[in-house]
Design goal:
The complex is a heterodimer of chains A (about 700) and B (about 160). With about 700 residues, chain A is α+β, with helices and mostly antiparallel strands. Chain A has 17 helices and 31 strands. Classes of the chains: A alpha+beta (about 700), B alpha+beta (about 160). One FE2/S2 (inorganic) cluster sits at the interface of chains B and A.
Chain lengths: ~700, ~160
């Protein structure tokens, strides 16, 4: 049995990006690459040069594909004897549109229409091992692997045609799924070339691909590959899977930490026809032929729990880091004109609240388990199942159908484990869909945090004595992009009263909220324009470019002056290789105190753009998600238990909250592509906070900023 | 508890045997295999479960089967006629008004009902009609654009 510890260099160095030891061997190793797919050409894209074979292998290749396949595979591509192209990846789709962008990459390099590419994603029996879909790694890491494999396949096809026609390779081109002779114009289809073959080719990570300025598919707007299935209701999410004889299950979760089951009226629940109770100590679950009966059984059961223990949101920030008697918010001046400032910012717990809650369907057959579930870590969840069920790794298969957005909240396999346990207990396939309440109360949350910042600023805009401490929310984005001599920044782990984990852009949202608000405060005490002040201190030209682009598009120079009602604010930052500049305009309703965000301009640069509309869509989505956390989202809790586990008690952005959002994309064809799902969220809260300050002179140092509106 | 024996769904009469107190959402998904209609909250707050009951958008999680035994129900699967997408479905594709698309069925059903009532809705009317539908991926502006586009294309067809 081979296990692999995750290479920390490959993943986001963030403690909340859950890591696990995962079995790394590939089911397809054993079956042989041609077993599942039939003959043709297979190209394996290896993660390291060490495993790559000589390019000469391409010719003739290794017949049969029966030998031990290399373990360090990033992706693989099969070109069937019918010319069909199937690409395999361990990444999963959850709305970030990588099914489309990866298909574009394969189509680009193989010179086939996007529609000819089929992508098999996140199936542990077919896909190469993958740590998980997080940290915006798909575009910078998986896309190049896919493209390399596809480019190598194209070259192999050209070799085959050269051999067949006995001509120079240079006289051949690949076009529209065929190899064409330049001299005669004769063509031959990929399927014809691979017919009767079993060619296996491996390539290293540095195989050459088409440069961005020559792209014909990548870099161009490409509609979502399976869009039609979505608008007609045909796509099956994990929660939609149905198996023969399937039943519905629900585990009754304790309301909070330490709560013990005191009593449950099992007889009353049992009296409902079709209901099975599964009980093992405090593990209490119900299974029935329909969700309706499950719910009736839950009501009949009337479980009673001992009180949970834990703290409440009332003391949260003091618990994370007690406020010391520093002169927060006060300015102190020196003779030379330096002014120093201390500020304390707080960040509430928020929930991902994905529209599709955790869901899984589990089925056992001859001691083997198959689970369909929505998770960003299919192999991680496979590991969880192996452990929880005590069965060998080889007996577990996890299939992740394209999933409802998780935003960093679906790294874990709670529903998968529950469904598997219940399916084993009742000897039938079981579906578990977490209720909205379960999802709010028992999934993990975006960490809460306290951030303390202090610095001195000179009227000429120079910053000194920068110090920045983050308690609990995380280290992502903690480094200042501004020119400061010997800055000091630190992330301090503390004990979190609630279960917490990854969230889109991790702690970068918190750290940017604090830093970009603080920069605005410094600009104010120095008597400088916030734009000029930032530009004077930014070192990185890419950051300067997005900030300037956002300010220009927004019309920063022409913004109205403070009138107590409308205001404008700026922020900028970088995360996961993307650079973002954000400008916000707010209007405050003096009567109701409601803060209306009237306009948002976001300039975004993430290297060479792979799918412009897809990047825009991601950026808009991140910005809107950011609005909720900036203005009103917050988890309330008492005795360690979540107290507002419903959409009627937890406010997320709705249509009337969403302003026009102008996205300005800066395309850097000379730079590698980075992911687009995370960075755009980071500037939203500080830009809005700074705009509120600009309008009213009120500095809001807690997100959410106006859960009850702005008291004026 | 009586059982409902027939339901009119997507232009077909379906023979069923469902407890009348079962929410329509679960009957559609579990008994009729129409899983395009989604669960998001079960309390009328998110709109993922929106269907048309006699042509009007309703939250299927809040309606029981007994209440619609005599009604015509349309789900996302029945919105296209033959192979012809509803103009709003087409508009969702044209402006890519989705990411994970879990909210999409509900959005389209709410939007289609709005367009039936108000063929040329103002921005404020769109917001009002769609306020009860949540999208966590943040595709709101695209959904607005899709509704406006569909309004235009429906007008052209009508002309
Ligand atoms: S599931 Fe019906 S409104 Fe949310
Ligand atoms: S597109 Fe994902 S919830 Fe709307």
């Amino acid at each position: 049995m081979k296990t692999r510890t995750l290479d920390p260099a490959l993943i986001e160095p963030e403690r909340y990006e859950l890591q696990a030891e995962i079995e790394a061997d590939l089911d397809v190793d054993r079956r042989g690459f041609f077993g599942a797919m039939g003959g043709g050409l297979v190209v394996l894209s290896l993660l390291s040069e060490a495993g790559a074979q000589e390019p000469a292998r391409a010719k003739g290749g290794r017949r049969g594909g029966g030998g031990a396949a290399p373990r360090e595979i990033g992706a693989w591509i099969h070109i069937g004897e019918d010319g069909n192209v199937t690409a395999f990846t361990g990444k999963m789709e959850e709305g970030q549109n990588i099914r489309t962008s990866l298909s574009q990459g394969v189509a680009e390099e193989l010179r086939v229409p996007v529609a000819r590419v089929k992508l098999v994603m996140a199936d542990t029996a077919l896909s190469p091992f993958d740590m998980g879909t997080f940290g915006s790694r798909t575009t910078p890491a998986m896309l190049p692997q896919m493209r390399s494999a596809a480019a190598a396949a194209r070259l192999a096809l050209i070799d085959l045609a050269a051999e067949k026609w006995k001509v120079e390779r240079a006289s051949l081109v690949a076009t529209d799924g065929h190899i064409k002779r330049n001299d005669t114009g004769e063509t031959i289809g990929y399927g014809e070339l691979t017919h009767g073959q079993k060619l296996l080719k491996t390539i290293g990570p540095e195989a050459s691909t088409t440069p961005a300025d020559k792209w014909e598919v990548l870099g161009h707007p490409t509609p979502k590959v399976n869009g039609r299935a979505y608008v007609t209701g045909g796509h099956q999410y994990a929660s939609d899977i149905k198996r023969e004889g399937m039943r519905y299950g629900k585990v009754i979760h304790p309301p909070g930490p330490g709560a013990k089951l005191l009593s449950a009226d099992e007889a009353a629940a049992n009296a409902i026809p079709g209901v099975t109770i599964v009980r093992d100590g405090d593990f209490l679950a119900l299974v029935a032929p329909g969700s309706h009966l499950v719910r009736q059984a839950v009501e009949a059961l009337k479980p009673k729990w001992s009180p949970s223990n834990g703290s409440s949101d009332q003391t949260l920030f003091n618990d994370l880091h007690p406020e010391e008697s520093k002169a927060v918010g006060e300015t102190q001046s020196t003779k030379e004109g330096w002014k120093s400032l201390v500020a304390r910012y707080t960040v509430a717990y928020i929930a991902h609240a994905p529209m599709e809650p955790r869901a899984a369907v589990a089925e056992w057959q001859d001691g083997k388990l198959t689970v369909w579930t929505g998770t960003s870590r299919p192999f991680g969840v496979k590991g969880e199942l192996t452990q929880a069920l005590g069965i060998p790794d080889a007996n577990v298969r996890v299939i992740v159908p394209d999933t409802g957005g998780g935003y960093g909240g679906k790294h874990t396999g709670e529903a998968a484990v529950e469904a598997a346990k219940l399916a084993r207990a009742v000897k039938a396939p079981v579906k578990v869909i977490w209720t909205r309440e379960d999802e709010f109360a028992h999934a993990y949350l975006r960490p809460a945090g306290v951030i303390e910042a202090s610095a001195a600023v000179h009227p000429n805009g120079t910053i000194s004595r920068w110090s920045f401490d983050n308690y609990n929310s995380g280290g992502s984005g903690i480094d200042s992009p501004y020119r400061v001599e010997s800055p000091r920044q630190a992330f301090h782990q503390t004990k979190s009263p609630l279960r917490q984990g990854s969230y889109r852009a991790l702690a970068s949202t918190a750290n940017h909220f604090a830093r970009e608000s603080f920069m605005d405060e410094l600009a104010h005490v120095a008597g400088l324009d916030p734009l000029e002040f930032r530009l004077k201190n930014i070192r990185e030209p890419r950051l300067r470019a997005v900030l300037t682009a956002a300010a220009d598009k927004f019309g920063w120079g022409k913004r109205p002056s403070r009138d107590g009602i409308t205001g404008s604010g700026l922020a900028c930052g970088t995360e996961k290789g993307g650079f973002v500049g954000t400008a916000a305009e707010v209007e405050i309703d003096a009567k109701t105190g409601r803060v209306h965000v009237r306009r948002l301009v976001v300039a975004f640069e993430c290297g060479a753009i792979t799918n412009p509309d897809g990047v825009k869509n991601q950026a808009e989505g991140g910005v809107i998600m950011g609005l909720g956390g900036a203005l009103f989202e917050a988890i309330k809790f008492k005795d360690g238990a979540v107290a507002n586990a419903r959409f009627s008690k937890y406010r997320v952005p709705r249509f009337s909250d969403v302003p026009p959002i102008e996205i300005v994309l800066l395309d850097r064809k000379d730079l590698p592509s980075a992911g687009a799902g995370e960075a755009p969220i980071i500037g939203v809260a500080p830009a809005i906070g700074n705009a509120i300050f600009n309008a009213t002179g009120r500095r809001l140092r807690a997100i959410p900023m106006v859960p009850e509106g702005l008291k004026v | 508890m009586a059982n409902v024996k027939q339901l009119r769904v997507n232009g077909q009469v379906r023979t069923v045997d469902i407890d009348e107190s079962k929410p329509l959402l679960e009957a559609l998904r579990e008994n009729l295999d129409l899983t395009g209609t989604k669960y998001g909250c079960g309390e009328g707050q998110c709109g993922a479960c929106t269907v048309h009951v006699d042509g009007v958008a309703k939250r299927s999680c809040l309606i029981t089967v007994g209440e619609v035994a005599d009604s015509a129900i349309t789900t996302i699967e029945g919105l296209a006629t033959h192979d012809h997408l509803h103009p709003l479905q087409q508009a969702f594709l044209d402006v890519e008004a989705m990411q994970c698309a879990y909210c999409t069925s509900g959005m389209i059903m709410s939007g289609a009902s709005l367009l039936k009532r108000l063929p040329n809705p103002s921005d404020a009317e769109i917001d009002k009609a769609m306020e009860g539908n949540i999208c966590r991926c943040g595709t709101h502006n695209r959904i607005r654009a899709a509704i406006r586009l569909a309004a235009t294309s429906m007008k052209e067809v009508a002309r």
